[in-house]
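Good day; I would like, with your permission, to put a structural problem before you. A protein sequence and the structure tokens that stand for its backbone fold form the material at issue. I would ask you to consider whether the tokens describe a fold that such a sequence might reasonably adopt. I set the record out below, with my sincere thanks for your time.
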Amino acid sequence: MATRRIYICGEAVLRKKAKRVRQVDDELLKLLEDMAETMREAPGVGLAAPQVGESVRAIIVGEVGEADEEMVLHRLINPRIVEAEGEVESGEGCLSLPTLQGIVLRPQRVVVEAIGPDEERLTLEAEGWTARALAHEIDHLNGRLFIDRAEADSLAWMIPDEDDERGYRLESVSLAEALAAFQRLIEKARAES
């Protein structure tokens, strides 16, 4: 396993519709394991292949059980939501839009069909945060980011703040300002490489 670079908002691969996986092979299995390692290191609760530069329909989503349980990782190939119900507004962020958050309306419950790493057909039913993470990662496979769904006036940077009980404070930002900041981040990374 290896960690991979997480692509940032503004990089083209994040806006492409990912290609359907036709064959589960060693290369895809390695990609899934690298994604799991990358997500854990980030840290995050989900990751889509386009976020590590691979335009294929594969995602990793973590599901936390009871308080003392370790996170269960779902490795899903060609996932699609076949059923969704309820609506919940909540704050959401993304590893490809570091430190940005916004209020996004997502289903309370989803049913996802996919293929697992061993090529078996899976049906996964999820509620709450896991349903939100599945919907978020499947959006990535269709070239959509959470900012496409967020309430425009809800976008904010999460600024470290030791005086706040959460450990951060929110600083409002417009979509245009956030996109410009991510573009500067991309340009800086290119200049350093």
In short: The CA atoms of residues 61 and 134 lie 7 Å apart. The chain has one domain: 12-192. The first strand starts at residue 46 and ends at 48. The helical segments are 26-41, 128-141, 175-192.
